[in-house]
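Q: How would the structure tokens look for this protein?
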Amino acid sequence: MNVDAPAGIARTRLLLAQCLAALLAVAVYVPALDGPFVWDDRLLLETPQIAELRPLGEYFAEPFWQVSDGSDPGSRQGAYYRPLSTLSLAVDRQLHGDTSTGFHLLGLLLHAVNTGLVLSLGRRLGATLPAAVIGSLLFAWFPRLTESVAWISGRTDVLAATFSLLALRVTLGSWAIRRWLAAGCLLVGAFCKEIALAAVVGVLCWEWLASRKARGGTTPSRRWRYLVPTGVISLIYLALRSSALGGSSQQSPISLGTRGLVSLEAASRYAIMLLDGWQPRLQIGYLAEPDPWLAALGVVLLPIPLLALRKLRTKPEQLVLLLVAFVAIGLVLHVVPIQGKVVAADRFLYLPLAMLGALAAAWISTTRAALFAATALALSYSPATWQRASVWGDDIAFWGTAVSERTARLDAHARLGFGNLLAEHGMYEEALVQYSLAEPGDAQSWMRCQYNRSGLLAMNGEFAAAISALEEARRRTPSRLQLERLATLHASQGRIDRALDLLQKYASELKDPTRARELEARITMISRLMPELARPPTTLAQALAQARGYAEVGLYRVAMAKLIILSSHPEITREHLVGMFTSAFEHGTPDQLQALEQRLRATGASYPPEYAELFAERMDRARRLRTWVQQASD
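A: Here is the predicted structure in token form.
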């Protein structure tokens, strides 16, 4: 940048550079824009705080992501306080409903804003404009950040980083009210996610250093005045957090000794992840089984933060940003217990990498060779980020990748999602394999695998195997849903007394008379229909009625098998075939759907034209799913 250029021209160039960097940041994430809800998205969006927009005060009075009492599968318990992240998702839910594109659009816009802020921080550190652009792109295109940007539930890190970056940029500026303005940004950031507390530490450090340099500011009383705004917002945050959480705290699922090893392993993993940004992963490490070699490496790495901070003691702006990066990583090293079972996560690198991007801008400004090397590095990141964004933008690719990347003891969630997708497309046997292979390291996801497995077995009339799967899951992780299904399964086998006993237990736990009465009515209906379904039909009408009866009691796979046999009956009509064909979209396998479509064509019958596109899409998705099933089995 020409230092002699008028200030207005300089500001225009900076703004244009920020817009360019923001556009380039968003460009590599275009494949994720129409991405579906994946991983925990559905569970999060169905929480009461997000499903319906509530009065503003309620968001500041409740914990983040608290679901019932934890007795049902998928329930979450934790001591997190993120009211503004919750509110942003609730507003999106009201605006976009079940359309994920709107959610993704906001995530990409926030990432674009953050890229511009990183560029601005780089310029504040003295970087040239080209170096500041490249530094911002090293951050924006870092492939491991796709988990934060392309995953709807990862918004918390992006949103907290936005206000943390704003606070730091204001702090390093020259505004007259910068301290209170920065403090307000820090408070908003902390309301988005706890990671913003790293920026609080950075701002306090800067203000303390500034107070020591201030004219006439050597007395302790004048120094403390520099810290008052940030101190006030910290007290406000802690008071509201304490009130919302009721004094609860996150409990560690592992012993203190194991937690020490995990903390060292996590430090090693984050160092490796920073060096190897091209290979993002959904799950990294297993909390209950720390890697001793990585823990040993963590011991070696411990002095590095202190040495790096010491080296930058004469450059306070760089010192502050590096301190924020180290504190942000320190907050996720399991020294403070973190909800979850993994040792490290890609999304936790979002704020640290924003700091490092601004620092990189200053460091690569020194020589042209450094600038060229950084440009080549940034360009190498962009295709990897595009490819990973494509994975997040496609549910089949996402769940297939999740299974292929699974951590051995923590594969249940990946197999659950992939199995559910297979079952949704009628690939029941393949789904059963995925559910059956799940490991119990993630107890809730493993239990849900067994629950869904029992449902598919019951759909095929394999009641004994379904009951066995549920009983095994119940021994490990009891749930009311298990009682409900066990009651209907015993009713299907004619064990009415056992079904009613389970119903009574279910009703006492549920404390919902209406739901209990609905289940009792279903048990009564099943016990009435099952004997009738056992009678062999003598006419086509009776056979069709029997198939409908099987579907009514939930034996959808049995019903579809009956319909496939009946499709070749000489008395079958076009209307019957069209009805079977449409039913196969919901409960049939791809082979059954294709057989019915061929049967319709062979008889010269046509089906509604809107089903032609649906059929082609279903066949294409089934083909792609089979490819991923094969890859998962290799």
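The chain has 31 helices and no strands.

Residues 124 and 174 are 11 Å apart (CA to CA).

Upvote if useful.
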